[in-house]
């Protein structure tokens, strides 16, 4: 199975100048754990729930722009990448969200949970826990 099959929606994006509070609100509204940070149409990085929690723990104000907290080293994989290979890539880079590209364009973001579920490592929906 290719990772393209795991994509359920286009990536949710936010401006690099958006505040941490705005990022958290958008994540909650869209029910996602990461946002692709952009300047116009150009991807600049990714910000995750974990990044926001760490920033708050480090006493960053909620008005801090996403650009100060985001990861700028975007790890990407082609849409045709097999799920098992994506799992290895994510493990090797110690990331929980992988940016998926096709023809040089970003088409989605998958999470470690998406990968684990597709590999049968998560057999039930744990959302009720």
Automatic annotation (TrEMBL):
Keyword Metal-binding: no
PROSITE patterns on file: CBS
Domain (CBS): residue spans on this chain: 7-64, 70-127
Alphabetical list of InterPro entries matching this protein: CBS_dom (IPR000644), CBS_dom_sf (IPR046342), Diverse_CBS-Domain (IPR051257)
Superkingdom of this protein's organism: Archaea
Keyword Isomerase part of the UniProt annotation: no
SMART domains linked: CBS (SM00116)
Keywords linked to the UniProt accession: CBS domain
Protein's name according to its UniProt entry: CBS domain-containing protein
Species whose genome carries this gene: Acidianus hospitalis
């Amino acid at each position: 199975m290719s990772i393209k099959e795991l994509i359920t929606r286009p990536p949710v994006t936010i401006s690099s100048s958006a505040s941490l509070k705005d990022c958290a609100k958008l994540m909650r509204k869209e029910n996602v754990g990461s946002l692709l940070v952009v300047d116009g149409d150009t991807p600049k990085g990714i910000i995750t729930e974990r990044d926001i929690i760490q920033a708050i723990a480090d006493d960053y104000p909620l008005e801090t722009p996403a650009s100060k907290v985001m990861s700028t080293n975007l790890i990407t994989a082609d849409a045709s990448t097999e799920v098992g290979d994506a799992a290895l890539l994510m493990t090797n880079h110690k990331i929980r969200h992988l940016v998926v590209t096709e023809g040089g364009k970003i088409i989605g973001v998958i999470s470690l949970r998406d990968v684990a579920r597709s590999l049968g490592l998560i057999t039930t929906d744990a959302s009720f826990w």
